[in-house]
Design goal:
Order of helices and strands: HEHEEEHEHEEE
Distance between the termini: 25 Å
Radius of gyration: 17 Å
CATH superfamily: Dihydrofolate Reductase, subunit A
CATH topology: Dihydrofolate Reductase, subunit A
CATH class: Alpha Beta
Number of helices: 4
Length: about 200
């Protein structure tokens, strides 16, 4: 995020915030997990491949890519369907759409039940999950108390704009008693920015 807590322009245009050093960290982190998750909003806005870059990692083991898409809006031509890594689309029970080149998991009434989805992934032997975004998705995982660690790189820039997206959007917690409390466990300078690493208090 930028120094003022934004992750994109007010238009939601993707913005490069990470330093080269942080980009390497992100790809190494991707390479170390079993599953990487984004929401359909990120797919529609940025069309990421969610692959590990050979520019940053020598021995690549791409994780399973999972798109949270309750109503089935992911385009057929999305980069996550390129066949270069396994892909899952998680939808609500009401969504009947299938996606070529991807497995579909239907779980949840009206929207994806994240707790049930995490249980399904765990039963398949997936013990590490990286949630990359966007802000509504990350908020949803905090809301359901499914976050163990929160890592954010703070870039040296100001974006501004009251409508600019943040790392955790959504409706937010409505009382101080409900907010997610964190413990700062590490801070590291990476190029012209700072990586903050938190553990989520239980």
């Amino acid at each position: 995020m930028s120094a003022d807590g934004k992750i994109a322009l007010p238009t939601r245009m993707q913005t490069r915030i990470s330093s080269d050093e942080d980009m390497r960290r992100v790809h190494e982190l991707r390479n170390s997990v079993d599953v990487i998750i984004v929401g359909v909003g990120t797919v529609l806005a940025d069309d990421p491949s969610l692959l590990v870059s050979p520019e940053h990692v020598s021995e690549i083991r791409n994780p399973v890519r999972l798109v949270l898409d309750s109503s089935g809006r992911t385009p057929d031509e999305a980069a996550v369907f390129d066949g270069d890594a396994d892909t899952i689309v998680a939808t609500s029970d009401e969504c009947s759409r299938d996606f070529g080149g991807a497995e579909v998991i239907r779980c949840g009434k009206g929207r994806v039940d994240l707790t049930k989805l995490m249980s399904i992934l765990h039963d398949r032997g997936h013990s590490s999950v990286l949630v990359e975004g966007g802000g509504d998705v990350i908020w949803s995982f905090f809301r359901e108390r499914l976050v163990d660690e929160f890592k954010v790189f703070v870039g040296s820039m100001i974006i501004g704009g009251k409508n600019s997206p943040t790392p955790t959007d959504g409706e937010g917690f409505h009382s101080l008693a409900d907010i997610a409390k964190l413990e700062l466990v590490a801070h590291t300078a990476l190029g012209d920015g700072l990586l903050l690493e938190y553990a989520v208090k239980r």
